[in-house]
Amino acid sequence: MSIFTVPPAAAIGAPISDIDTPALLLDLDAFERNLDELQARADAAGMALRPHGKAHKCPAVALAQIARGAVGICCQKVSEAIPFIEAGVRDIHISNEIASPGKARLLAQLACHARMSVCVDDLQQVDWLAAAVQEAGAELTVLVEIDIGHGRCGVADVDLMARIAARIQSLPRLSFGGLQAYHGTVQHVRLPGERQQIIDAANARIRQARARLESEGLPCAVVTGGGTGSADIDFASGVYTELQAGSYAFMDVDYSHNQPSGAGVSSFAHSLFLATRVMSRAAGTHAVLDAGLKSMSLESGMPQVWNAAQARPDAVLACTGVSDEHCTVGGAAEAASTAGATALSALPALGELVLLVPGHVDPTINLHDSLIGYRSGVVEAIWPIAARGLSR
Ligand SMILES: *Cc1c(COP(=O)(O)O)cnc(C)c1O
User: Fold this and answer.
1) Which of 172-186, 238-252, 289-303, 307-321 is predicted least confidently?
2) Separation of CA 227 and ligand 1 centre (Å)
3) Ligand 1 centre from 154 Cα, in Å?
4) Ligand 1 centroid vs 194 CA: distance in angstroms?
5) How would residue 338 be classed by pLDDT, with cut points 50, 70 and 90?
6) CB-ligand 1 contact for 297 (6 Å cutoff)
7) Dist. CA 56 → ligand 1 center (Å)
8) Is the pTM of this model over 0.90?
9) Using CA positions, which residue lies closest to atom 5 of ligand 1?
10) Measured in angstroms, how far is the CA atom of residue 271 from the centroid of ligand 1?
11) Cβ(181)–Cβ(222) below 8 Å
């Protein structure tokens, strides 16, 4: 036991101006509107919504999604599902393949407590799963993942797909659930016309795969896939039974670059912010925030200074550099031209709270222990990000 205590980052009922930084803030009004909106659109389309838990890793968020009508959640990793099951989530799809018999055994244990499903793209994985469910006395739904152009996991060959599906169906305690068809890269294609074109080609492959399975007496109860960037197209296509969107709850800088089509991504609002404070203005040309790579991920680009939080006009300040524990901020115009000095008066004051919109939600969330929910500037909830770090 240590004799020192780091004070909690926030206290329920306290103003967010009192928050200790860096910390992840959730604007509950914007978050709830995002959840309500996607659920309403799924309901209107007659599609199930199974939000992706990898985006939030937070049981309280999953329960809020399920309370609005989500059929369950997706997880990417088997161990990631555990905190959700412990919090009462009863239907979890592992939208991914497993890599070892040990992983199959853990999954079979979980399947004794919740309705679990998983993806395969190889007969070997089916054998691992079959042995594990036999040993655990569990039942498991197995979906064949097909590659519809993403070029990651998934079978591309329909003959092999049909052989795998038939093998699943023939084994005790396994049932063939249908198809997973996920196109990750299309989610971030910026122009709606281009997104539509790529998805049309992908959907033709899904229809062909489904028809082939039906002709062999293996109907697909579920066709699952899609994300925040493709949601509006997926609702209209009639190809999917279930949408797996994740980022829509929070929205990051990357998704804000997608151009909307119809009621597209732009109708979701930023709700997740990295709260930082100015720790130095000594240089006189820029401010330094107290959060860096250990608090946010940069692989999808720089965070955006949320000027609206300080009622600054849009794009007044921008992040100019990020290192392990520092983020430098200067005038957006200067940052763009790399010309240099921002007037000291334009910079946030030493100790001032500065909110950043993360470049990419999922890996940023994974760096934090809790989500601090606020409304009207007051902390209302502190939710553990319980699946943080569970990547096995
Ligand atoms: C990440 C992911 C999603 C969700 O994508 P978003 O872009 O966050 O909405 C859905 N399905 C699979 C398989 C994923 O990997």
Assistant:
1) 307-321
2) 5
3) 15
4) 19
5) low
6) no
7) 11
8) yes
9) 227
10) 18
11) no
Per-residue confidence (pLDDT) for residue 390, from 0 to 100 = 97
Q: Is the CB of 300 under 6 A from ligand 1?
A: no
Residue 266, token pair as written in the block? 């732009």
pLDDT given at position 336:
66
364 C-beta closer than 6 A to ligand 1 = no
Q: What is the mean pLDDT of residues 332-341?
A: 65
What's the CA gap between 62 and 86, in Å, rounded?
A: 12
- From the CB of 195, is ligand 1 less than 6 Å away? no
Query: What does the alpha-carbon distance between residue 234 and residue 187 come to, in Å, rounded to a whole number?
Result: 11
As a whole number of angstroms, the distance between CA 390 and CA 83 comes to 9
How is residue 73 written in tokens? 């959640």
56: which residues sit within 8 A by CB, 6+ positions away?
62, 246, 249, 250, 365, 371, 385
Which single residue is written with the structure tokens 């097909």? 146
